[in-house]
Predict the 3D structure of the following.
Amino acid sequence: MTITQGFLDDRIFTIVSEVAAEKGVRAFVIGGYVRDCFLGRPSKDIDIVVEGSGIDLALAVGERVHSNVSVFRNFGTAMLKFRGTEIEFVGARKESYRRDSRKPIVEDGTLEEDQLRRDFTINAMAFSLQKEDFGALVDPFGGIRDLAAGIIRTPLDPDTTYSDDPLRMVRAIRFATKLSTPEHAFTIVPESLESIRRNCDRMEILSKERIAEELNKILLTPKPSIGLRLLEQTGLLRYILPQLESLKGVETVDGRGHKENFSHTLQVVDNVAEAEVLAIAQGKLTDHIIGENEDITKPRTEPNVWLRWAALLHDIGKPQSKRYDPQTGWTFHGHEVVGARMVPKVFQYLKMPLNEKMKYVQKLVNLHLRPIALVTEEVTDSAVRRLLFDAGEDIDDLMLLCNADITSKNPKKVVQLHANFELVQSKLAEVEAKDAIRNWKNPITGDYLMELFGMGPGEWIKPLKEAVKDAVLDGVIPNDFEAADAFMRKLAAEQGLTPKR
């Protein structure tokens, strides 16, 4: 079958075809670009497989289009950019694996052998770039049929595919999640699901970084719960994120059960995904970027994967804090504090960054009950100022997470809580406009106090700074230096401290 719908109209395909012919090699577009063409999805990444040296062809194409070529000889690949599109070249190859490693033994191969080593039939399709059959679809495993049917299937026996490279088990789930739409769901074929269950212990040979990379891609899909549910159903979750696995199930005492926290968490992640995309489209979210030479706030244009992680981990402290009280029923007091303490361990286990990204997730987990508490209590300016101060630049993400956390089987309760939440958001905007607390920094610094009183560093400094902070946040004094200085001097005089000026 020759493709005529314009999938190969880009000039780069003709150039690759011409250069390949000059060098006497056959070249094909393969993988995700081909798949996405049929799905009508935009793609800026093109993979070219060559029956010969992918690096040599890439260098020749790079010379033709005057583009720098990045060469990765250890992997036998090369990459160049052409008009904003990345094109990666690789030689066709066949692979074999050892039982104790997912690193393959690689040999030169044909297109058919290269397609055979691909993870799924929908990723094994290729377009010919030969002049005589330019655009012909090479599909030996029925990928086009599987694409139309919405199924994820391996070219080889799934036990072979997954045992050889266990990461493909997570990739199967990621593609089922990523490609699913309300109109066209993708599912993993039953024999493949059973194979994943049989081979899940092979996850132990994988690097945590690769697992985390796949998890991030699942979390950034429109409906992450599809993948998270599949990870749980196949047994992979206990190898990847046992803390989430612990949320499963409902315990009942005296006929009273608590919320099923695993399902609740998946719903919250989906709620966050939907709400964030909408908020980005409406220009309601920003990102604060601090670098060596910049400190700026700019509109968010892409989903924040760390916000999705905060949603995923917001209740992980519940199993440890769960208690049953005959009078009040089930409680999870302090689960936000317990959960925040668990976040660094999760990040460390998955080899994720332990920098400001981890601290952001930890902060949101720790604060996620604060806005909810304001919903059910009188919304005082003081409480709002403290929330703004503690959340800082992340207040909008925190509010989005907390709004997403409102779930219940009682529709009236949900409607009422969302209405109350709107009041809290209005109050936040009002107080922020008036007091500018979000990025508040104490005007009374330690250096200022030491200079003013002619004293060295010591325990005497902290109480004065804390008193000023509390006075501002509680609305006792205005948020300006003069008021803070006068308040501090009065307090210092009561403690017997005399300023030098």
